[in-house]
Amino acid sequence: MSTIELLTQGFTTVFTFKSLAFIFLGVVIGQIIGALPGIGPSAGMALLLPLTFGLDPATAIMMLAGIMYGGQYGGTLTSVLINVPGEASGVMTAVDGHQMAKAGRAGAALSIAAIGSFLAGVGAVAAVAFITPALSAFALRFNAPEYFLLAVLGITAAASLGGSPVRALMAATLGLMIALVGADPVTGAPRLTFDQPALFEGIDFIPVAIGVFGLAEVLSSLERAHDMKPIRTRLKDMWLTAAEWAESRIAILRGGLIGLIVGIMPGAGASVASMLAYVTERRFSRRPERFGKGAIDGVAAAEAANNASAHGATIPMLALGIPGSASTAVLLAALVLHGVRPGPMLMQQEAVLVWGLIASMFVGNVVLLVINLPLAPLCASLLRVPYVFLAPGILVLSLVGAYAATLDMGTVWMCLVFGVLGWLMIKFDIPRPPLVLALVLAQLLETSIRQSLLLSFGSLSIFVERPIAAFLLVLVAGSILLPVIGALRRRFGGI
Amino acid sequence: MTLKAPPSLAAFVFCGVLALGFVSSAVPADAQEMRAPRGPVEITVGAGAGGTPDVIMRSIAKIMADEKIVDVPIVVQNRTGAGHANAFNFVLGKRGDENTLLTLASPVFTTPIVQGTPSVIDRITPIAGFIQSELVLLVPANSQFKSLKEFVEGAKARPSRVRIAGGASGGNDHLAMALIEQAAGIKMTYIPHESGSAALATFLGGNVEGYFATLSEGLPHMQAGKARAIAILSEKRRTDEGYKNVPTAREEGVDVVYTQFWGVGGPPGMDPAVAAWWADKFRKATESKAWQDSLKEKLQLGSFHALADADAYFKREQDTFRRLLTSVGLAKPQ
User: Fold this and answer.
1) Are A329 and B49 in contact (CB under 8 A)?
2) In this structure, how many other beta carbons lie within 10 angstroms of the beta carbon of residue A11?
3) Which terminus, N or C, of chain B has the lesser number of Cβ atoms within 10 Å?
4) Cβ count within 10 A of residue B329
C-alpha cells in the first residue's frame, strides 16, 4: 500500500467519535500539564497511563501522544506570562516571550507560539508520514561524537544570550559546575555529593529552572514592590500585527526544520532543538540586537523547533523502537503494556495503530491551534492582575511544581536555594538563561565526549573522520571564530 | 413481585465459599496467617515511567485489579532518582507500614554497594521474586564474529578493543560482561549510556562490537536483519522461534549464567501476616492466564520465590552483585 492509502486508512481510524474524543482529551490534558511547571508531559503521560488500560491500543496511544505534543503548546503559557519555563525546551521561549509580555505583547507572543507550533508540528508529522525509514537511518548516523559537537555548539551559542558575552559565559560556566555534581556518568563514582544520597544523581533541571527563573523573579519584585504597576494591555494589542507575522514566517520554517532534525536524533532533545533554532534565527536576523529584548521571531523559532522536535522524536520510536525523548519512552512503555512489541517491525506489523497515530497527530495539532488562538488573549489578560496578587500565586505554583516533580521536599529546598542564586544574578546583571541551558547541555556534553573517546580508544581523530562530525566541527569553529574576527575588525578598522 | 433466591441456597453457597476460602488459605506450605491491608496501596518504583520495572509493576497491578485478585486500589508511583535511592529510602522510612511496597530491581541491590551505604535487602520485608529476563549477546548482522568462540578469540587477540555498548556502569549488562571477561580470561571495553535504549542506538549505528539485550528487546532487531544473537547467558537454550538456534554461553566454552530478575518487598517490620497476604496475591496474579501470556509474549521467565524463600534468593543475588561490583572496581567499602 502506498503512503497516501495508509494515511487515508489512518484517518478513517481517527474519524470516529471515540478516537476524536480521546485525542481531544489528550491534547487538553497535555495543554494543562504543560502549563504547570514541574510536571512535564512525560510525567503526565505516566500518571495517566493506567487510565488507558480499558482502551484499545490505538486509541490509548493517540491520547497519550496528544499529551506529549499538547504539552509543548501548554509550556509556552508559563514561559511567556510568568517567566517560569515548565520544561527545558521552554527556556528559549521565555527569553523573548517574557520580554514581550512585559511590553504588553503577551497576546502576540502566545499567538505566534501557537501558530509556529502548529505549522512546525504539521510539517513534522508530514515528515513522519512520508520519510520515516530514510530519517531513521539518518538518525543512527548520529552518535556520541556528533552529540558532543552539537552540545559544544549549544554552549558557545549560550555566550550570545544576554548583553555581554563575558557575563553570559560566566553564567554558563556556573551551570556547567552545577552539572558536575552527581555520579560520574562513565564510572558511576560519586562526585561532589558530600555523601548526600539526594545528590547522587546530580542536580536536576527542574528545581534550578523554577528557582532561578520563577522564584528569583518574585524575590526581585519584592524589592521594587512600591513602583510596580500592572502591565498595561489593551485588547487591540492582543492580536498579532501583519508586521510581526511577516517577521516570523521564515523563523517558523527554519525553526521547524532544525527542530525536526534534532528531534529525530535519539540523544538530543527539544531543549537542544529550541536553543539551536533561536541562535540560528539571531544569526540570520537583520536586526539581531532585538533578541533578548522581545524579538517575536525568537519566540516563533524556539516554539516551532520544540514542537517539531517532539513530533520528530516519534520517528526513531516508530521505525526502530528507540525513544527519541522521555515522552516517547512512555509511549513505548504504553505499547508494551497494551501487548504491542515495539521495534523495527512495528510499522509493518501494526500498520493500523501506527497510521492511526500519525493521522491523529494531524488532527490533534489542528485542535490545539483552535484552542490556543482564542486562549492567547485570554491568558494574556491575566497579566492585568496587579503583581502583588500574582506573586503569591507564582510562588505557590512554582513550589508545588518542584514538589510534584519528585515528591520529595528536598527538591523544594533546592528550588529555594536556586531562587536566591537567581535573585543575586538579577542584582549583578548576570543573564540567567545561559546557566540553565549549560546545565541542560552539560550531561550531553560530558557523556558524549567520554563515550566518543571510549569508542575511539582515546583518539581525537573520531571528530574529523566521521563526515557529519567533521561538518559540525566546522560549524563550531565558525561560531567561535566569526564573532572574534568581527570584534577585531571593529577594533582595528577593516583588515 | 420479589424475585430472590431461596435463603437456604444463598446461605449454603455463602458457607461453601467461606469454607473453601478457609481451606485454601490454610493449605499453603508456609501455613502462615494472612491479613489484608486496609486502604489504597502504593507500589513504589525507582525507575521512570516506561522502564522495565515500571512496566512489570503496572502490568501485574493491572492483572490484580482486572481479575479481582486484590480489591484495594493499587497505585504504581515512580520515585525516580539517586539510583533508586529516592524510592527505597521512602519505603525504608515507613517502618511497619502496610500500604507501601517497594519494587526490587537491580539498582536496589547495587546502589548501596556502590555508595557504601547499608544494604536495603537486609532491612526490607521480603515478599516475592517473581519474574526473570534472560540475556543474549548481540553482534551486528555484518560482524566478523559468527559465534561466541570467535568473539572471545577476537577479544583475546586485541585486548580492550572489543567494545560493548551498555545501559549504565554497574548495570546488569556491565556485570554480565564482567562475568564473561572473568570466565574467558579476556578484557573488553564497556561504554556506558544514559539508558539501555541510548546504548541500543549506538549498537544499531554500527559503532560497537556487541550489546547485551533481553530476549524481547533483541528479537525485532534480529528479525529485521540488523543483529545476530551469538549466545544466551542461560542454563539451557530457548525453544522459541528465533532463539532456538542460539547456543548457551556454556556450550561455547564460556561458563557464564546470568539472569536479570525483579521482585517486591515491604517496609522494615511489616506484619508477617500482611507480607504473607501479598505473597499469596502475587502468586495468584502470576498464575493468571494474562500474566502467563505476557511472559510468553515478552519471552520472560516466571520462577516464583515467596517470603523466606525470597529472602534467601535476594540475599544470594546480593552476594553475587557484591562480588561482581567488587571485581569491576565499583564497590565502595562500608
Assistant:
1) yes
2) 16
3) N
4) 9
| Residue B39 Rama label (left phi>0; alpha psi -120 to 50; beta) | left
Residues 200-259 of B with CB under 8 A from A: 200-202, 204-208, 216-217, 219-221, 223-224, 226
Q: CA of A144, closest CA in chain B: separation in Å?
A: 8
- Give the whole-angstrom CA distance, residue B325 versus residue B328: 5
Q: What is the band of A231 on the pLDDT scale with cuts at 50, 70, 90?
A: low
pLDDT of residue A131: 87
Fold (topology level) of B7-132+259-327: D-Maltodextrin-Binding Protein; domain 2 (3.40.190)
Q: Give chain B positions within 8 Å (CB) of A183.
A: 83
Exposure letters B86-99 (e unless 16+ CB within 10 A, then b)? bbbbbbbebeebbb
Are the beta carbons of B330 and A320 separated by less than 8 Å?
no
A201/B79 touch (CB, cutoff 8 Å), yes or no: no
- The whole-model pTM stands at 0.86
**Nearest by Cα to A337 from B298, B311, B308:** B298
Look at chain A and report how many structural domains it folds into: 2
Distance in angstroms (rounded) separating the CA atoms of residues A104 and A116: 20
User: Does the distance separating the beta carbons of A187 and B191 come in below 8 Å?
Assistant: no
Q: Decide if A201 and B82 are in contact by the 8 Å CB cutoff.
A: yes
The better pLDDT of the pair A226, B309 is held by B309
Q: Is B280 within 8 Å of B287 (Cβ atoms)?
A: no
Least Cα distance to A435 among A91, A29, A11 occurs for: A91
Q: Is pLDDT larger for residue A273 or for residue A85?
A: A273
Same domain, yes or no: A371 and A465: no
Residue with cell 536566591: A420
CA-based nearest distance B41→chain A, Å: 15
CA distance B280 to B284: 6
Query: Which of B49, B50, B169 shows the shortest C-beta gap to A187?
Result: B169
Q: Does A451 touch chain B (CB under 8 A)?
A: yes
Chain B: residue nearest A444 by CA? B194
d(CA B263, CA A426): 49
Specify the residue for cell string 562513565: A186
In CATH, B134-232 is 3.40.190.10: yes
Do A434 and A494 fall into the same domain?
no
- Predicted complex ipTM: 0.86
Same domain, A450 and A460: no
Q: What average pLDDT does the structure give for chain A?
A: 87
Domain co-membership, A221 together with A355: yes
What is the per-residue pLDDT for A487?
77
Domain range enclosing A108:
3-455
User: How buried is A49 (Cβ within 10 angstroms: 0-12 exposed, 13-18 middle, 19+ buried)?
Assistant: buried
Which alpha helices (DSSP H) does A141-295 contain, by range? 144-158, 165-179, 205-209, 216-223, 242-264, 270-284
Q: What is the mean pLDDT of residues B91-102?
A: 93
Q: Which residues of B touch A322 (CB under 8 A)?
A: 197, 200-201, 204
Together in a domain, A287 and A233: yes
Question: Do A353 and A475 have their domain in common?
Answer: no
Cβ of B49 within 8 Å of Cβ of A201? The answer is: no
- The CA distances from residue B87 to A125, B14, B168, in Å, are 37, 42, 19
Q: Chain B window 133-172: which residues touch A at a Cβ cutoff of 8 Å?
A: 160-161, 163, 168-170
Phi and psi based region of residue A407 (left: phi greater than 0; alpha: psi -120 to 50; beta: remaining): left
pLDDT in tens, A105-157: 888 999 999 999 999 999 999 999 998 888 888 888 889 999 999 889 888 87
Judged against a pLDDT cut of 60, whether residue B90 lies above it is answered with: yes
- Domain limits of chain B? 7-132+259-327, 134-232
- Residue from B169, B297, B326 to probe the interface with A (highest A Cβ count within 10 Å): B169
Residue whose C-alpha is closest to residue A368's, from A58, A77, A48? A77
